[in-house]
Amino acid sequence: GIKVDKSKVGIITTLPNPTSVWEVRSFLGHVGFYRRFIKNFSKISLPLSKLLQKDVDFKFDQPCIAAFQELKNRLTSAPILQAPN
């Protein structure tokens, strides 16, 4: 089956809260690589994605913190995808 690379996930889960648009974009890029393992990825990541929009002030508020933590949590508990028999 296809599974999440535990060494890469370990690095992602230790990341502190992003402090810039660049860090949010980088985080979403890395986590997005595993989006097929994370149910409701788009819905969960929405507060973070909104920070990437043009002319939006960077405010890493409570919804962003919650989304950031939830994505990291779901990534560590991601299932292994297996091809159907």
Automatic annotation (TrEMBL):
Annotated InterPro entries: DNA/RNA_pol_sf, Retrovirus_Pol_polyprotein, Rev_trsase/Diguanyl_cyclase
Highest rank taxon of the organism: Eukaryota
Coiled-coil zones: none
PANTHER family in UniProt: PROTEIN CBG26694, PROTEIN NYNRIN-LIKE
Record's protein name: Mitochondrial protein
